[in-house]
Automatic annotation (TrEMBL):
It comes from Papaver nudicaule (Iceland poppy). InterPro entries: AA_transpt_TM. This is Amino acid transporter transmembrane domain-containing protein. It is found in: Membrane. Keywords: Amino-acid transport, Membrane, Transmembrane, Transmembrane helix, Transport. Signal peptide: none annotated. Pfam families: Aa_trans. The keyword Coiled coil does not apply.
Length: 536
């Protein structure tokens, strides 16, 4: 074999190799500038050994770490191209995530084409709703100072735990925790994770869905009364029949197959929630305030009663920031690669969503308490608007407000029911090893919708026990993410991060117990007769 080197002016260099059958010209890569600390052969420079060692220790290992300049330098150009293309493929396509074939059959992970816009829609739809309308009730027990302090602390706290959940979604290389319960099992263990997480998340999803049926049905009844006026006095539908009408609408909309397919509904829910929240506090502030209004916290006959009332009010504040049980599920609908991890669009959408949520919950709390003070009914600001100003506000505006609440309840029902649908179908597919047919999927969703309807009839006070729901589900939002961060990320013991997360986690558990006791006391003290609206 004879090796000849030929050169041409203003042209790249070539090595020409001659064999018995052919002559092959291989281009020689021009000499490039070498990064500081790396020699052309790929070895480290002795002068920069310390920076390079520090840099390599801070970078996490990835499946493409071996495809480095040092590894590629002794390999010929064609093989080098193949390996570089392989590296790009691994970074763009799969980053070697272990995929579960069952995930392609389930409604949460069936579609992975989500983006930051979808994340914003879903987080808004899940994070704001009827619970924000109850915040002025909490202020009537806490007063201005403690009401604002507790609301601000709760908002900042839940925003931090949301960022923790977003980062923990892909905390382990090659593994995506697509559901909250999966992350809990990874942190606390298989059995303990299920025991700690299953009840609050199912209670939050199913309890919220049942409460939405009650509130949506009652609001739909009031909307019909406002629109029809005196014409609706003959043979009107009862409250239970309106629950049935609303449940039927929820079941029809629940036939959408997966979480990404309801992005349009989440957008509608987000827009309607922002609109009616703004309308409610603007209409309340624009009307004359009721006489004998006071901003002093409601007095109680005994010290213990006052303590329980405050605990229940703080539970209402905690319940206003729900939706963390859906954070991982929303993020799992997005594609993820090394170059474009899913946490980037998720966090971008979540920041926009929770900025808008702050623009809703703070004005509703401040404006509602300013307009009604401690005269605020137990049903919240929407009930107060109907009781105090139903004759002063134009019927069109009042009817539009109630209709927006109905649309928001319909949309929120879908996203909060999706984890329950996912659990039903996961049980079916694991037993049959095949995806659900359209009839099985529809059957599950019809069954769940009407089970929630019957629970709402049996427990008609469920929509009024926001304090109890906030206490029972508080660990999902405020405590568990801090514990899971420490157990999975394993920060250095006795460091600030270690102390900070353990402290927040145990404070969340303590508050959960206290708020739950306050919620139970409030429910028993009221004789289980509180309702969001008092049906006529």
């Amino acid at each position: 074999m004879e090796l000849q080197e030929t050169t041409k002016a203003a042209a790249p260099e070539y090595f020409t190799t001659t064999t018995q059958t052919e002559v092959v010209s291989i281009p020689v890569t021009p000499r490039m500038s070498t990064p500081e600390g790396v020699t052309p052969s790929g070895t480290r420079s002795p002068n920069s050994r310390r920076p390079m060692m520090k840099q390599s220790s801070s970078n996490a290992w990835t499946p493409t770490s071996l495809i480095s300049p040092r590894f590629l330098s002794p390999i010929g150009t064609p093989m080098k191209k193949v390996l570089i293309n392989m590296k790009s493929y691994l970074e763009e396509v799969g980053h070697l995530t272990k995929l579960n074939s069952q995930d392609a059959w389930l409604p949460i992970t069936e579609s992975r084409n989500g983006n930051a816009h979808y994340a914003a829609f879903h987080n808004l739809n899940a994070g704001i709703g009827f619970q924000a309308l109850l915040l002025p009730v909490a202020f009537s027990y806490l007063g201005w100072s403690w009401g604002m302090i507790s609301l601000t602390i709760a908002y900042v706290w839940q925003l931090y735990t949301l960022s923790v959940l977003v980062q923990l979604h892909e905390a382990v290389p090659g593994k995506r925790y697509n559901r909250y319960v999966e992350l809990a099992q990874a942190a606390f263990g298989e059995r303990l994770g299920i025991w700690l997480d299953l009840f609050p998340t199912i209670y939050l999803s199913a309890g919220t869905a049942t409460a939405l049926i009650l509130i949506g049905g009652e609001t739909l009844k009031l909307f019909f009364q406002i629109v029809c006026g005196p014409l609706c006095t003959t043979n009107p539908l009862s409250t239970i029949e309106w629950y049935l009408v609303f449940t039927t609408l929820c079941v029809v909309l629940s036939q959408l197959p997966n979480l990404n397919s309801i992005a349009g509904l989440s957008l509608i829910g987000a827009v309607t929630a922002i609109t009616y929240s703004t309308m409610v506090w603007v209409l309340s502030v624009s009307q004359p305030r009721p006489p004998s209004l006071s901003y002093q916290p409601l007095s109680s006959p005994s010290f213990s009663t006052s303590v329980f009332s405050v605990m229940n009010a703080l539970g209402i504040v905690a319940f206003a920031f729900r939706g963390h049980n859906l954070a991982l599920e929303i993020q799992s609908t997005m594609p993820s690669t090394f170059k474009h991890p899913a946490h980037v669009p998720m966090w971008r959408g979540a920041k926009i969503a929770y900025w808008l949520i702050a623009m809703c919950v703070f004005p509703v709390s401040i404006g509602g308490f300013w307009a009604y003070g401690n005269l605020m009914p137990a049903g919240g600001i929407l009930n107060a608007l109907y009781v105090f100003h139903s004759q002063d506000i134009p019927r069109v505006l009042l009817a539009a407000t109630f209709l927006l609440v109905v649309f928001n309840c319909l949309s929120s029902f879908q996203i909060y029911s999706m984890p329950v649908f996912d659990s039903f179908e996961a049980g079916y597919t694991s037993r049959t090893n095949r995806p659900c047919s359209i009839w099985v999927r529809s059957g599950f969703r019809i069954f769940y919708g009407f089970i929630s309807f019957f629970i709402g009839i049996a427990l008609p006070f469920l929509s009024s026990i926001a304090g109890l729901m906030g206490g029972l589900t508080l660990p999902v939002t405020f405590a568990y993410p801090c514990f899971m961060w420490v157990l999975i990320k394993k920060p250095q013991k006795f460091s600030f991060n270690w102390y900070f997360n353990w402290t927040l986690g145990w404070l969340g558990v303590a508050f959960s117990l206290a708020f739950s006791i306050g919620g139970v006391w409030s429910m028993v003290n009221s004789g289980m007769k509180l309702k969001f609206f008092k049906p006529n």
